[in-house]
C-alpha cells in the first residue's frame, strides 16, 4: 500500500516537473512576429475642382497625416521616379502597367489615390475629396474607398454658432479624418459608408430590369459620365460619387477605374467627349465586366454665397454584357435646400455632398435585393 502510494506521488511529481519545463520552454519562446505593414504609394492629389487648387500642399498635408497614423509610405521621390521612367502622367487611377511598375521598382503593395472635387478657400469654405486604396496585385483592385464633402456652414444652427472660421481648420480636420479611417482600414478592411452625414436622395424616375437581381452578374465597370453641365470635370466627379456607394454596397465587384481608362485610351473610345451605348458594349468585353454604368450630368451647380444651395441633375444607366440590354436607367434632380426650413438644419451645402446623397439613393435602389458577395 505504501509502495503504491509512493509510486503515485513520484509519477505526479514527474508530471509536474515536465509541465513546468514545457511552460518554461513556452515562456522562453519569442511571440510570433507580426506581418510588416504594407508599403503604400501615395499619388499626388488629382484636381477635379474645375479650377485651380493647391494640390502640392494638400498632398504634403495628407502624407504627413498618414505617416502620423502609422501608414507606411513609399518615399515620394521613388514614386515620382518610377512614374517618370514609364512616362505615366495620369494619377487618378492605376492600370496594370502602372501597378506592375510600382510593385517591382518601388516595392509598393498598394496605391492611395486622392481626388479633389471642391476646394473653395474663401468663406464659407468648401472642400470635397474621394480617396481610394488600390491593391496592386496582378489585377488592380479597389480595397477601400472613402469620401467626404464639407463646408464651413454645414451645421450653423441658431445664430451661426458652429461656423468654421478658416480654410485651414476645415482642411486639417478633413484630412485627419481621412488618414484615421484609411489607417484603420489597413488593419481591418471594412466597407466605408460614403459621406454618412448626408441622407440618401432617391431617384425621381427609375427603370430596373429583374436581371439586376441575378447574383452571377457581379462585376461592374464605371465609366465617366457625359458632362452636359457648365462645370468642368463634373462627369468625372459624378462617376467617383457612384464608385464609393457601389463598393460599400458589397453586392458587386467594381473594376478599378484606372484599368477602364487604359482600355478606353488604347482603343480610342470616348475621344469625342462621350461614351455611347456601342462604346459601352466594347468596354464590357475589354474589361470582362458583367455590367457597365455611366450616365449624363445635365446640371452641377455649387452653392453661391453663405445661404445658397447646390443644384444637381443627372441620368444614369447600366448595360448588361450577356444580353446587350439596358437593365437600369434613372433620372435624379434636386437642390440642397429641398425640404429644409428650420435654421437650415439638414441643408446640403456642396454639390459633391448632394451628388453623394443622390448616388447613394440610386445605388441603393439599383442593388436593393442582391445578396452580399461571398469571399472565395
Describe this structure in words.
The chain has 376 residues and is α/β, with parallel strands linked by helices. The protein has one domain: Rossmann fold, CATH 3.40.50.10610. Helices cover 36% and strands 22% of the residues. It has helices spanning 2-28, 55-68, 76-85, 96-105, 167-187, 234-249, 257-266, 277-287, 351-366; strands at residues 39-42, 46-47, 72-73, 110-120, 126-135, 141-151, 205-208, 219-222, 226-227, 253-254, 291-301, 311-320, 326-335. The strands form two sheets. Strands 7, 8, 9, 10, 11, 12 and 13 form a seven-stranded mixed beta sheet that branches. Strands 1, 2, 3, 4, 5 and 6 form a six-stranded mixed beta sheet that branches. Strand 12 and strand 13 form a beta hairpin. Helix 2 packs across helix 5 and helix 6 (234-249) crosses helix 9. Residues 1-9, 13-17, 19-27 and 156-161 have low confidence and may be disordered.
Main features:
376 residues, alpha/beta, Rossmann fold, seven-stranded mixed β-sheet, six-stranded mixed β-sheet, 9 helices, 36% helix
CATH-defined fold name: Rossmann fold
Question: Separation of termini?
Answer: 63 Å
What is the mean predicted local confidence, pLDDT? Answer: 86
Number of helices: 9
Could you give a short description of this structure?
This protein is 36% helix and 22% strand.
Task: Give the SSE map.
Elements: H1 2-28, E1 39-42, E2 46-47, H2 55-68, E3 72-73, H3 76-85, H4 96-105, E4 110-120, E5 126-135, E6 141-151, H5 167-187, E7 205-208, E8 219-222, E9 226-227, H6 234-249, E10 253-254, H7 257-266, H8 277-287, E11 291-301, E12 311-320, E13 326-335, H9 351-366
Parallel strand pairs: 1-3, 1-4, 2-4, 8-10, 8-11, 9-11
Antiparallel strand pairs: 4-5, 5-6, 7-13, 11-12, 12-13
